[in-house]
Amino acid sequence: MDEIIARIVTNLETQLPVSLSFLRDLETLLDFTLNTNDTIDLDNFYNELSSRNLSLSLLTNAISSAMDSGLSSRNSILASKVYLSLLLSPNAPVFTLFTPMAFLSLLRAIRLAIKRPSFASGEGSVPPSLGRKKRGRRNIGGNKNRVENRDSVESEAEEGGYDVKDLFFLLDKLEMVMGLVHLNRFPDCLKALVQTVCEIPTTAVEFWGNLASFRKLCELCARVLSEALKAEHGKQEDTAAVVLKALAPLILLSKSQVRSFALGFVVNDMVGMCESSSDIKMAVANMPKYLVQRAPDKSEPRALAVDSIMEIVKALDFEYQGEFADYIIKMTQGKGQFRLLAVDLVPVFITSLRSPLGFDMVDAVESSWGTRLLEALVQRCSDLTAAIRARALTNLAQVVVSLSGNEKSRTVLKEVMGFGYEGTDGINKILKLCCMDEKAAVRKAALLLISKLTAHLGGELDEELLKTVGMACSDPLVSIRKMAISALSEAFRTYSSSLVTRVWMHSIPRLISDNETSIQEECEKLFSELVLARISRAGLSCSANYDCFPRDTNSKGNYLDTEAELLYPEGLLPLLKEISDGEVSPWVKKICLSLGRKKKLQTKIATALQSVIRTSESLWLNHSMSIEKWTAPAGAWFLLSEVSAFLPKAVDWEFLHHHWLLLDKYKPVSELQSPSQQGFVDEEKVDVEPSSVAWVGDRVFLLQTISNVAMELPPEPAADLAQNFLKRLEGFNMHSTEVNAHVKALRTLCKRKALNSEEANSLVMRWVNQLQSKASQVLDLYMSKISDANKENALLTPQTTVSWKERRTADSVSKLLAQAIIAIYTIGSLVIVCPSVNLKTIVPTIHTIITSRNSDPKSSKLPGLAASVKQSAPSLYIQAWLTMGKICLVDAKLAKRYLPLFVQELEKSDCAAIRNNIVVMMADFCVRYTAMVDCYMSKITKCLRDPCELVRRQTFILLSRLLQRDYVKWRGVLFLRFLLCLVDDSDKIRQLADFLFGNILKAKAPLLAYNSFVEAIFVLNDCNAHTGHSNSNSSCNEKCLFSIRGNDENSRSQRMHIYSTLLKQMAQEHLLATFAKVCAEILAAASDGMLSLEDSAGQSVLQDALLILSSKEIRIQSNQGSSSDAADIEEGGDCGALTAASKGRAITQAVRKGLIQNAIPIFIELKRLLESKNSPLIGSLMDCLRILLKDYKNEIDDILVADRQLQKELLYDMQKYESMKAKNSAVDAVATMQRSEAHRSPCVTKEPSSNTVKGKLPKELHSNSKVASAVADAVAAVTARSVLREINKGASTPLSAMSVPKLKSRTGQQPGIATTGGGRPTELIESLRRRQSFDSDDDN
């Protein structure tokens, strides 16, 4: 050892840089001393240093310089080991050897060493960076280069590498040194130590690949931090704060291993120390609040931060948990980022902690923070920021699911949210607004919450909310529609009330025609589960329930209805009733057709429907009610007729035969008559009961069912039934709704009776010709009777009394007319069934009827002249047009001849039924003869403005279908005429139009709104400036019909609604192009004189253009696509969409600047023109310019940078206009208050104050400084006028009541009394009366 000591001392004396041999010699000396616990050699070393006048600080500085050298990790680590061993050696002068600089060098060496672990160590691993570097070198050059590079790397590892065991040794020894050296005297060293130890896991996880080594490293770091938290190293509260701040970035990291280390140390180690140290407990309790301030904004890191915060909170005492809950409640009222974080914390907080609502606590008041957190979360559901609203709704749904496990929690949830309680708005009001929110994420979250509330809390939704959810089923976004379907179906699955049933049936089945295939499939699935399966269960159980019911033959009326409701479970009767509704039945037909084709209809549904009808009949007879007044439950026969087409074997023939005989034998007393018959009988006798309509409908559906199952009937009953049907048809005494059913059933029975198709066709042709011949005879007979009657009465003097013979003749003509109506309707049905029937004999008769309009108005005034068929038999006239349309559908030559006649009748007819029928016929003609009808499309579209709502709605629906199927093109005026349906008087038409423009056209013709937008402005204002020529009278009439001309508020709001609807369909680039087109084609035209501003229509066009340019729909924010709008991305995760969006934003910025460069000169020129003409449109122009200055501020500043004078003029004009506007608003408010005060008693009249007047103004003006100044001026002026008025009256004024020194007048009169003549006080008052008002320009 003496030689080693001599070498060490010699090296110190030379004061050369420390070598590796020096460090190894010193390591040998210290290891020997520590291992043998023999201090003789070490004492000799200290003595030798002392004898040569070498201080220990020289040794410390040498070792410190070696640790700081950084030439190689091996030297630094070796020097660090020597330094720590020196401090831990027996009898070592620790306070002399320990210096802050050496300790900081030690920490720096450790930090650098973490990044370069050993290559050769079994516990370490090759760093990824070096591995990549080595591979990169091998790719350059040949084999020789690869060998040289490998050798250089290996030599580098030998010289600069180290074994990770040395690092473990250092951290272990460091912990031991901290037991000797108390760092309370060195706070900087303590902070550096904490920072270094906390950085070690973060750095190691990037460079180390061995998980076992990393875990061991984290354990050593935790031990060092635990040692640092002891009281010997300073105040524990300060040390704990330093440790927690250093660990906060690690806790918020997304790297799971580092985050686990930091969280584990806080939750396990530090919380364990809290029992012995209140200072550490307080620091840990404040750690969640600190993490809240450091939480990131992005969603995924924020979610990890929430989990980390809750891990710490769960480890705290209950007292501190309550404090943090109060802190979260305060966060919900803070800034946006804190509100969003609080909304994420609330559900995790409630669901993670034990008994958040205090049910298991002795003192439940202490746990009321759970209820307050719920209330805060409910309040955030109506937050101003859309992202927060969406998150709050989603998290509230999560809370509802987690707390719905017991009855107490459900009760608290209902009370807090006000859900399920009548007379309280609560969450229902919030949900109504959120379901109609402009942000998709909010709507989706609201529907999710509704679904969870219905499924888990058991509260029934109110009517308005149900209707709102039903409207959401037609949302433009697919995901919203799916969520609305789920929410509404969950309510229907839970409750069977008539309200829920009605909303579900009117909202879900119609989605069978949705463009999205998955929604169609979901609609079919839900209809099978919630409708057909429910009917099957209830129908099969109703017969068993009927056997258990007591028989009460004396009960009638309401009791029968109550018994029927009890007999049919699961709300079966309201469900069947809604199925038969006119708006629902078409969709039910389509669903049944789709399910039948897919073979998803089960036999039990047909069996259940038969059971429902049988039970209803038995219940009726059990109460001794007359069978002729019985009708089956509404919708039962209809649904059976639809499903029987695919389940013919499931329908019992005996059942059908029995009810056919029943319905055929017993007819209601007041059976529904045809319109012609009702017109010829006394009004007192015409009393059609609802049962009559239901009876006829049941017979029609029964006939359809019979035709569906006809192929399964035995031959003999089928023949008898066919003969019966033919006999009934030949009588021409049925209602028209039954004729089609009889004809179709008869055709089906003929096919069943025939042996082959040829025989079936001949049978059908035989009875069709037979029926057509008899119908023709009936028509000819009626027309001859009318002709004979007209000839007899042509020149006779009118009689005052009617003879018995004439009355008898009239009765016979009336009966013949009823037969003629059914006969002509039967002809139309026969044409559809058998297009090849010979109609040469019947067409002239029908032609005579439809052309029998009396064109001479004078002839109607002459007594005895024959009236036209339209006047004498309007029902026959209507049916004649309908039958002629059916004939034209099968005969192209005839259609070409009669098409102008149809169009003429459509324009001139005053009968809504005829116009409606002709519109339907023209739609069918358009499919069959597209080119032939195309030239009449402008005439057909005039029906969109028909006075009858039914005709308008029918026209809109039919034309929409033709447009979707491309039979009609969106060209010419067709699109512009459709626009007025958006503001139709009918709510149903407006809803249909919104769906057409918002869903269908947006996908099918996305450029249509953009291409026609400017033209729509001119057309809606009835302005011809864009065409350049005047129009004919007929064209002017059509333009007036399809325009909303006028400057009144109603007309302007209707036009703006149309404009906003079109703008919402445009993409961003189209909005910018539309902005440019409006500026170029309207504003520039007005400034150039091409658009006359003297005309009211031209003024309306310009005003509409200014309102459009200032509307929010045409604006494109420069920060679109930011994180606040990320919640609106549909089914997010599409990288291509995000890339396109970022490119679009860059292009948008460039286009915005170019756009505004062209627009500002136009605005300036137009402003000068309007000012020269003193036009009232200057107000609209200034409003628009003010919004542009705010929205395009950066672009306008760049444009006007070269013309500062112009910029100042624009700003001056804007400020002057706003000041004048504020002054007018204040004056109007003061005048309104004065008028209201005038009606009060004089004793309570008081002058208005600034605050009172400000309260009368709109809320958006409260924060306007100019408005506040104008209000103060207006109030001061009113007060001055009031004082002068009181002085004139000689009354006391507020000034006279003031305690001020009183001066004697110059003439010696008493103070306060005005002098007469030339006294000064009178002159002063007169000058005040004549005081002029000079208003400032508010240059500032």
From TrEMBL:
UniProt source species: Sesamum indicum (Oriental sesame)
Listed GO CC annotations: condensed chromosome, centromeric region; condensin complex; euchromatin; nucleoplasm
Location relative to the cell: Nucleus
Transmembrane regions: 82-107
Protein name: Condensin-2 complex subunit D3
Region spans: Disordered: 120-155, 1237-1257, 1296-1340
Domain of life, per lineage: Eukaryota
Annotated coiled-coil segments of the chain: none
Transmembrane helix listed as a keyword: yes
Key word tRNA processing present: no
UniProt-listed Gene3D superfamilies: Leucine-rich Repeat Variant (1.25.10.10)
Gene Ontology MF term list: histone binding
GO biological process entries: cell division; centromere clustering; chromatin organization; meiotic chromosome condensation; microsporogenesis; mitotic chromosome condensation; sister chromatid cohesion
Chief location of this protein within or outside the cell: nucleus
UniProt keyword list: Cell cycle, Cell division, DNA condensation, Membrane, Mitosis, Nucleus, Transmembrane, Transmembrane helix
Pfam family, one: Cnd1
